[in-house]
Amino acid sequence: MRCSFSLTRAALVILIAGLFPFAAAAAECDDHSLSWSKTPKAGTVKADQGPRLHFQRVEDGCPGGDTCKAKAYLVPGDKVILDDTGKTWICAYFQGPKRGTFGWLPRTALDIDNKPPAPKKQDWVGRWRVGENTVLIDDRNRENLRFKGWARHMASFSLSDFEFFTLPKGNKVVDKSAGGECVVTIRWVAKLLLVNSTQYCVGAANSFDGVYHRTALTTDPKDEH
Asked: How many Cβ atoms from other residues are within 10 Å of residue 185's Cβ?
């Protein structure tokens, strides 16, 4: 696995929090915060929430402010993945047909799955994408799954990658390389992948962090849609 000792966003967040303690208390809801969540779960919009449940914006003064109501909304039965840490508001992500949406949702509006079923082996297999990043998972090895990932930053012509062979434990895969300094964690939640890695796994401009959706059931590029 290629490794780099450049600081990534995760390291910068930790550094800033140490220099300015008040920054650590600021609520975050994005691909980084959700992919690093210690309590990611699936949720379903309750039937009694009316025809539309609007997200709350991810910005200063939100959620709960007078101007926090976003245009994006969900309907009863919609599935989201969430960071189950908020008491009143929960950071949630919804994957639509063309793009994903992050935002705050009221806890009372969601049925939260506290005991999600473990995915089957074939639930992992395929091409997974977010932005310029790709993760390929195939079962060509009879004993293990192969996990191959690329994090690209085209503006800086930067590329980082990883590759390892293992079998998931429940809905989670963890790989440690470079003496344990490069750690890649992948979790399968509600048909999406939450991926994060330590700063030793990527270059300064790259990050594997994010919510990946499956674009094809195979790893062949021609099958991607």
From this structure: 18
